[in-house]
Amino acid sequence: MGITERKERERQEVRSLILEAAQQAFIEDGYEKASIRAIADRVEYSPATIYLYFKDKSEIFFAVHELGFEKLINQLLDAVEGIENPIEKLRQQGYAYMNFALENPEMYDLMFIQNAPMEAIFENEEWVCGHRCFEHLCDTVQQCIDNKLIKISVLGVATMSIWSFMHGLVSLKIRNRFKTFPQEHIQNLMSASVEQMIALLQND
Amino acid sequence: MGITERKERERQEVRSLILEAAQQAFIEDGYEKASIRAIADRVEYSPATIYLYFKDKSEIFFAVHELGFEKLINQLLDAVEGIENPIEKLRQQGYAYMNFALENPEMYDLMFIQNAPMEAIFENEEWVCGHRCFEHLCDTVQQCIDNKLIKISVLGVATMSIWSFMHGLVSLKIRNRFKTFPQEHIQNLMSASVEQMIALLQND
DNA sequence: TTTTTTTAATGAACAGTGTTCATTACTTTT
DNA sequence: AAAAGTAATGAACACTGTTCATTAAAAAAA
């Protein structure tokens, strides 16, 4: 009776084909232009077929944003590989986060700016991939605290401050609000800000 | 020949009626639901009429976001009235910024998160209201630097860092990404983060 | 093998969006 | 009173997300 299993396997295969197409449509054309019809065209299915595999657009975007988190988490892990000093870990994770955002602006948009993927999470449900990613920041910051390397001693305050700073930095850039700074200095200012923030955090 | 003047006056009146309606539609229903037809309904005009007064939706939203900046600038000014200490000014402006964002999330969204209003600015044009608002932060930070009250000495780095931190804080909150923190502690953590950041900035 | 049942995919439609344009209604000028 | 100019609109176009009755294909039962 392997027939139902094969059917299920085929179903999952089509599902991930759609997901792949959605991700690509999204990365290439951004949130606004990645319509159901555009995704359907890529997989050569009818738009209605999409709804046999996903409840609605939010659910598709939620699934895509999970793929984004997988990638980000990997890059965060790669960034600290072989590094012992917790402060240096923090710095490298900061740059990894920034690079991810600037190299994948549409994906970052989906993960941290757009409302859509969050609407797919029910009231009392957990934002699993978000938590998983956040854990890596917590780990590093906790190490900094344990070794008395930073001036903040409350984990929650430290992680919220650091994350907010990094998110503000990249999202203002992505959303074109840094017009208040000279165009040609923005990149340098952003790096300098990261360094400055670490310097401020660090214990003497 | 006051007839053309009267015509012009009437034109401007209708224009600001539409603008008022757009602002309200926006504040009440948010970016997504504030459609041209919804705005037209509020002023009891045909949707096509809107286009006699605004080039497109971006231009409407740009005009609305300017109204938001007027309000924010006023609140920033009110917040520092009578305060001499630059650090205290910075703190109060920080809280004023945060309160504005949390009390007017849809407007803040438009001003600092949405792409639409920025698309109405031509390539080599200036983001006047943005610059005007940013000036107030520059002034305060420059005073802190002049009086050697903060650890950062480069104006650009300081303003970018502080603004990024504040924007990250309120935008992650607005866009529901602080699910990684216990719901009931978020508000307190946000205030604590602002205090912590000022403490880090301050010279001993 | 033929018939019935189950499953998968779709075309067409609905209600909504921003935007355009020929046509109508109204004002001002001649 | 007729002509010219301006303001407002209804209807349409090309999109959007989503639904549903109908069709095509595969599996199960006869």
Automatic annotation (TrEMBL), chains A, B:
InterPro entries: Homeodomain-like_sf (IPR009057), HTH-type_Tx_Regulator (IPR050624), HTH_TetR (IPR001647), MT1864/Rv1816-like_C (IPR025996), Tet_transcr_reg_TetR-rel_C_sf (IPR036271)
Residues covered by the HTH tetR-type domain: 12-72
Keyword Membrane: yes
Membrane-spanning intervals of the chain: 149-170
DNA-binding region residue numbers: 35-54
Keywords: DNA-binding, Membrane, Transcription, Transcription regulation, Transmembrane, Transmembrane helix
Organism domain of life: Bacteria
Protein name: TetR/AcrR family transcriptional regulator
